[in-house]
Amino acid sequence: MPVEVGNLKTQHDALTVIDAARVREDFPILHREIKGKPLVYLDNAATAQKPRQVIDAISGYYEKHNANVHRGVHALSVEATELYEGAREKARAFINAAETSEIVFVRGTTEAINLVASSFGGSNVKNGDEVLITAMEHHSNIVPWQMLCQRTGATLRVLPMNRDGDLLMEELPRMLNERTRIVAVTHVSNSLGTVNPVAEIIAMAHERGIPVLVDGAQAVPHFQVDVRALDADFYVFSGHKMVGPTGAGVLYARKSILEGMPPWQGGGDMIASVTFEKTTYNVLPHRFEAGTPDIAAVAGLGAAIDYLCATGMDAIARYEDGLVRQAVDALSSALGVTLIGTPGQRAGVVSFTLDKIHPHDVGMILDSEGVAIRAGHHCTQPVMDFYGVPATNRASFAFYNTRADIDRLIAGLDKVRALFA
Amino acid sequence: MSDMRELYQEVILDHHKHPRNFGRLDGANRHAEGFNPLCGDRVTVYVLVENDVVREIAFDGSGCAICVASASVMTDELKGRTLAEIEKLYGTFHDVVMSSTDTAVDMDALGKLAVFAGVREFPVRVKCATLPWHTLRAALKNPDGAPVTTE
User: Fold this and answer.
1) Which CA distances in Å does A319 have to A189, A314, A316, B127?
2) Nearest residue on chain B to A392, judged by CA atoms?
3) Residue of A37, A358, A393 for testing the chain B interface, max B β-carbons within 10 Å
4) Does the ipTM exceed 0.90?
5) Chain B contact for A227, CB < 8 A?
């Protein structure tokens, strides 16, 4: 979890736990220029940049080991399988899951949630039941549950939040009831940066026998996650937001639950035997991995986990916490800036508006200064509706960002205001 | 910043800050709502058409500077024009903002719309400039006001 860092001195100390200049050497794209100016990349919540080690793992796979997995007797297939299954063990250790059979490779967080909503939801959620989500979910943790509710006649309920962007935890006991079949909650909000008290939510849900899915897409890049300490039933995340490639993500599911879930997609690799009369399904986790997977992306994800672990998740958490606090301070005192969301605990993300200037105008002018932020609704339209804004500006940070990036952002905002004055 | 001044010309910034013909038009006999789900731009265009001539036109909604200015300039330019003239002007406008940057632009044919010629340098902003026009054409074609989107 992010550590508490109180004052300016400790903020500064936090920024010494990572040698950002050295880290930046590993990321080729950070040396690019945009519109003649050095790139300042502050759109990490959309996707993170990739270090050389990850890029090399992907090209190295294609140059030296390319073959299909789990079926060949030849050397290349054995190597490809070792890379693929080796990454599964890395993913297991990364989130401290008990067994590799609990790690299902998927394309990303969205696919993982759809898998759970279809397979687990399809067999456990019936007419009259309820699914509980929260007011700050990404569309990918809303729409699959809406689709499930439409199919089954269940009701989607939403745990509200306050203006700070913190969940109304006092409402939770009332909203968990004998009809609730699953709770789906984001660990960290992608549009507000809120770190939710998921351990507490899980404990309260478990008291009532209700399983919980945690969307960890915006959490795993920023601090150490331990699915057993959280006691999560499902924990899902994408590789590309944690310096890995697009195309590979993880569904963690508790083995006892995964064992009871029907297969999601049918095909090769997920079967033990097939006749025209009957198919016997493969063991976990392969039962949920039909077809040839994105082997190169999974190899890249393995390299990304190695990279994050070598940098140290605790160091990353401390460094980013100091940096994000500096960003919040700098933005709070910048003219015309209004923060959207002031949560008690924040990771990675700062959302804001600038005067009445539309975020698309802000983002475009910042781009002309070489500063990349996200302008839009961040796939959280209900959050935008809650704050009564069509869109926000979002700066999101990684451990390779620096104080100088924050200064360039603030200077860019001054230029936006000058143009619109 | 210099290319930003090309895009955000004084005329555009002025129309954004002080949009003309802004607000609901009472007595309109055509209207449509336009929405750009990518950025949240939302405009409603109201038109009073008589004998194939636009007598009155107004808009409301919210959006970026390019979108609001485009709607404002559009409504200013089209009052009193025939539907055929509007269709022709739309064609010229559309061709310019969709054209590649090395194509010559007939500024005279564009009139006041020429301030939006710079938009073609920024493909992601073309939809901001064209949303009011798509919405207007939907209103003219479709009197019962079904919403249009840019996607």
Assistant:
1) 19, 9, 5, 40
2) B39
3) A358
4) no
5) no
